[in-house]
Specification:
The protein is of the alpha+beta class and 428 residues long. The chain has 18 helices and 16 strands.
Length: 428
């Protein structure tokens, strides 16, 4: 009796696992089912994604797409577990700076021979570089956002400062002087939310010619924290420690944490990702006048690094061709505009970026669209071991530097010496 019961339980468990395991599938009637894991989280974005899935399913009866909700908070570990367990979704929403190890590990399909020419032509080459590892293309970059300055218009006009435009931005020294002018009487010219300081520092440093990661002829990457890399962190450090034009209390904060103080007039400006405009539009008090300004420019102009959101296909998916067809549908120009508007971000596609809805001055869309041509792959894009370097070396070192606990010399030593020890383990 025990043997029979155990056998029955094992059989039931096997059926349950068969239903839950693996990418995609094919129903008894021959219809293919693809699983699409989306990381959309804002109501508008979730709605846009689900509507597009429904539209696909209505017009493609032989290939059904199942919408699966994921989370940015846990996507890396969740994907790694699903890859190793053979349970990865067919179509995967992620960010380009999370793809390198998955691509090198053989978890993502090389899309080189699967992508339609329309899609390859519509998305600029520098965007494709963010998803290219070795000779393969392991995702489609589709949404991107520059860092911008969200400014209290009333405070800037009252101070009589020149308002920058993409055609005539502030330089980094000018930005520092402006924040000093905007400070006083309990108010700071800027609040830097640097709970995650590495991405902001590295990406903005492209404007000053910073590179940080240097690759030799053999492909080996080393960290060199040179003069051009030091302009942005030195500016932030001096605003906090010398000028008192930046709030020290926000250095450990996330972007959303600074908004109450911004609305209350405590901070005249906050550097944020472009998509934060949605929260500001929804949460700002009635009559609060704000606008979007470009980040400061350096020796390389308005250049800054980005890690676009991406759509990839699992290597284990038995229906790669159908999965790519669904990605192509999602990223038709009109659909890409819908996704961009839902996330308050910019599309990578050149045709979508020309849409009038993304060129209006309202809520800073026109300023963001003007910055799109200056976006470049984030410096760490293809660096293996970046995640460990960021968490164990760069984040604590930058946090200590910005708080004044260490100086520039020690910051450089830690980023280079400790950082190169970490990266060396991934390049043997």
């Amino acid at each position: 009796m025990r043997t029979r019961t155990l056998t029955t339980l094992l059989a039931a468990l096997a059926l349950l696992l068969a239903a839950c395991t693996g990418t995609g599938g094919e129903a008894d009637d021959g219809r293919i089912t693809l699983r699409f894991q989306s990381l959309a989280w804002q109501d508008e974005s979730v709605k846009a994604n689900k509507e597009l899935v429904e539209e696909w399913n209505r017009t493609h009866p032989d290939v059904r797409v199942e919408y699966v909700q994921g989370s940015w908070d846990s996507v890396h570990d969740q994907l790694l577990t699903s890859f190793e367990g053979g349970e990865a979704p067919d179509v995967i929403h992620d960010a380009s700076d999370d793809l390198a190890d998955f691509a090198h590990g053989g978890y993502l399909a090389d899309l080189t021979g699967l992508l339609p020419q329309r899609l390859k032509d519509d998305i600029p080459r520098h965007s494709w570089e963010t998803v290219t590892f070795g000779d393969g293309v392991y995702g489609v970059p589709f949404l991107q956002e520059p860092r911008v300055l969200i400014a209290n218009t009333t405070l800037l006009e009252r101070a009589g400062v020149r308002l920058p435009t993409p055609q005539r931005p502030w330089t980094w020294p000018e930005f520092r002087q402006v924040t000093k002018r905007l400070s006083g009487d309990g108010r700071y010219g800027v609040a830097w939310p640097l709970k995650e300081p590495v991405s902001a520092t590295l990406n903005l440093s492209l404007s000053t010619g910073g590179r940080l990661f240097h690759r030799d002829g053999d492909g080996k990457v080393t960290v060199r924290f040179e003069d051009a890399d030091q302009v942005v962190p030195r500016t932030i450090h001096d605003q906090v420690g010398r000028d008192r034009s930046a709030s020290a209390s926000t250095l450990g904060s996330g972007g959303s944490d600074t908004l109450p103080g911004f609305f209350a007039g405590k901070y005249a400006m906050v550097p944020l990702g472009f998509s934060y405009r949605q929260q500001i539009e929804q949460q700002a008090p009635e009559g609060f006048d704000w606008q979007v300004l470009p980040a400061p420019a350096g020796a390389d102009g308005l250049a800054q690094g980005v890690s676009p959101q991406t759509l990839s296909v699992a290597e284990d998916s038995p229906h790669k061709k159908e999965a790519v067809a669904f990605v192509d549908f999602l990223l038709q120009p009109d659909n890409m505009v819908r996704l961009a508007l839902g996330d308050w971000m910019l599309p990578t596609g050149t045709r979508a970026l020309e849409d009038p809805a993304l060129r209006t001055p309202e809520n800073g869309w026109a300023t963001g669209a003007a910055l799109a041509a200056h976006l470049r792959p984030a410096p760490a894009q293809s660096v293996r071991g970046y995640a460990e370097w960021k968490d164990k070396v760069a984040t604590p070192a930058l946090q200590e530097y910005y708080s004044g606990a260490i100086g520039m010399k020690e910051l450089r030593e830690r980023l280079e010496e400790d950082g190169n020890l970490v990266l060396a383990r991934y390049q043997r």
